[in-house]
Amino acid sequence: MEATQVEGVDLLGDAPEWQERALCSQTDPEAFFPEKGGSTREAKRICGRCDVKAECLEYALGHDERFGIWGGLSERERRKLKRRVA
How many domains does the chain have? Predict the structure, then answer.
């Protein structure tokens, strides 16, 4: 059975198809969700080499992700970006 897709998201609850190719899916997820005040350096380094960085950031912005590093940006950086675009 083939799953129906909406904006790259599987309606049966699976992750967006690009997430399978994301470098973060092959590393420790805790690096992408550091404790308050924790370093984001390692996560951003990984994002910098990732082929799906743009898709990841687009997903985070479109789904109002409030925690973690997505597309190489922290939540604060994503808020700033949204303000500049608006």
Answer: 1
Beta strands 9-10 and 5-6, pairing class? antiparallel
At 2 the pLDDT is 40
Query: What is the structure's pLDDT at 14?
Result: 63
Is position 52 annotated in a ligand binding site? no
Q: What whole-number distance in Å separates Cα of residue 17 and Cα of residue 37?
A: 31
How far apart CA 5 and CA 57 sit, in angstroms, is 19
Q: At residue 78, does pLDDT exceed 90?
A: yes
10 is in an annotated binding site: no
**Structural domain boundaries enclosing 38:** 5-85
Residue 68 is assigned to a ligand binding site: no
